[in-house]
Amino acid sequence: MKPPKFSAKSIRFGYDDKLLFDGFGFDLYPTDRLLIKGRNGIGKSTLLKILCRLLQAEINLFLDGNPVRDFRAFKHKIAYLPDDPPLYEELTGNDNIRFCACLWDLIRDREYLNRVSELCEMLGLAHDLSKPVVQYSLGMKHKLFFAIMMARRPEITFLDEPFSAFDEQSRQKGIELLLHSASEGRPVVFVSHDQDLQERFATRILRLPDEHPISDAIEEGNHV
User: Where in the numbering of this chain does the ABC transporter domain appear (predicted)?
Assistant: First the structure.
């Protein structure tokens, strides 16, 4: 049995005097495609943000068996794709790519920039990169941010409602890319209401209970 790629332990988080998570934790294995399930409002998207350190919580994180203490370095190793892509709409697609590359210290990384271009081509976005993002459809925005983030080859990818705005052809190509990522030992964690995606893509399910605070969850499926 391979050791976990990532572990989250003793998660404690709440707001407005309401405790959502109290001692919750789980392990993520190298080839996992982990679906987080639960009723609406239980905290699935909140959990993703906690795991990515976008919300401050009491938590112990481990990557490759080592405690995560440098959260800035940790964020450089993962990717978080929310359901609302954080792009600058007044900038062009190319300018957003360059801006994000600067944020990740990748502006001089020719390999990264080439991968972004290849992914944009794969997703049918290459001819729109000179346009301001304000002119993009929601699907185009999702494709651009997907290309920007996945070109980094993150060690773990966290996605909230992936491919909900993709056309079918781009959806299939995006799924294939995530399948390849997990097969290389770079696991995927996602939240989705798409029943087809749940059934076809997930190898494990982390099912959150219906009541707060959450201290445990039901795990379904086996890691490889």
Answer: 6-222
